[in-house]
């Protein structure tokens, strides 16, 4: 009997200790660093310029510019009321989300978005737009003429200052149909081929700089990556045009951002990660919410602490360390966190810690893509710097110019600018997974003669 009492006392002591430890963990909550990260993610930084959301969302319809904002706001309100008001696990929600359509569908004409056949498609990821246009200019001219209104709409997008999504942060929220965003690339290549050289250069510069700006000012990770792809596509076309033009051909005024003394802060992922965090945090909360949405007690999930945990994973991209890595072109990301379920903040929030640890390290390749876009732009500026020096001294060589190039243009320790193997161009390594290098041609006076074997 005495042994049974002792065992019961030990068991009771263990229960009391576990409850006390759990209570201490729930009372303690997130760490100070996690709370600081939460404040960073919850902050809404004012962004310059007009919001591109309405223009992108309604790209596929012929909606007058003055009517776009009101129509887009109404679409966002309708989605919130018709779809997002339903609980995440409601069986009616998938059908409601699939059936959602913009009011523009019934009120405005659908703009044609043609790509032509596979032989003539001139996409943002391609490397041969000029060659394709030269091979079949009549086909491209017809494509551009038939889509004149869509071209006008697509050209306007990079002139916006930022992108802020008006739809609720939900995984089933609609995404704009972006067919037609590559149309300005085709139109600029066609203009260049048909002799409108300065206009093609100016419009390509405006597109590349505008998309690069939107890349760092978007609260949507998907839109930021679309902007990165578009900036790269227009940078490729610019490089191809500059590689053909003699160094004495001056840049139009619209290409001032390509000059060596033009300074622009590098585009980072901070705003995109704020939007991504809002999406993750809201969906984690909904995952544990009952269908009737009434508050309930969960001993293994603390919504506030989980929000702070997920914020810590994302907030690194808003730190001075991340900004320094961007400026120095270093392929680094947030430090690895988590992995220890017995952390004090996890005792009363085991489910939240598991979810935060799963979602933590998935964003490094997006950082690499941003760095690669910045490196492509730096290479374009280096190419223009070499063209300007060659125009001043036609006898100069690419080798001597590379040796004298300003450090800001010559590349970083992680990847320096280098000549291609045949001496006809410049190249840089790329950080993005699955990518190797990016090359541009030097104009004929600077390009080395092709190497040939002995007869």
Describe what this molecule looks like in 3D.
- This protein has about 450 residues and is mostly helical.
- The protein has a domain at about 270-360.
- The chain has helices at about 1-30, 30-40, 55, 65-85, 95-100, 105, 130-135, 135-145, 150-155, 185-195, 195-215, 220-245, 270-285, 305-315, 320-325, 350-360, 365-390, 400-405, 405-410; strands at about 420, 425-430, 435-440.
- Strands 1-2-3 form a three-stranded antiparallel beta sheet.
- The model is unreliable at about 450-455 (pLDDT under 50).
Give short descriptive properties of this protein.
455 residues; mainly alpha; 3-stranded antiparallel β-sheet; disordered C terminus
Estimate percent helicity.
Answer: 40-55%
Arrangement of strands in the largest sheet: 1-2-3
Return the string of H and E elements: HHHHHHHHHHHHHHHHHHHEEE
What characteristic shape results from the CA principal axes?
flat
Our count of helices gives 19
Please report which band the strand proportion falls in: under 5%, 5-15%, 15-25%, 25-35%, 35-45% or over 45%: under 5%
| Rg over CA atoms | 27 Å
- Poorly predicted regions are 450-455
Structural class: mainly alpha
Mean pLDDT: 83
Most strands sheet: 3 strands, antiparallel
* Straight-line N-to-C gap: 105 Å
* Count of β-strands: 3
How would you summarize the topology of this molecule?
Blueprint (H helix, E strand, L loop, with lengths): L1 H27 L3 H11 L10 H5 L7 H20 L8 H7 L4 H4 L21 H7 L1 H10 L1 H9 L26 H11 L3 H20 L4 H24 L25 H18 L15 H13 L4 H8 L22 H9 L5 H29 L5 H7 L2 H4 L7 E2 L5 E5 L7 E5 L14
Antiparallel strand pairs: 1-2, 2-3
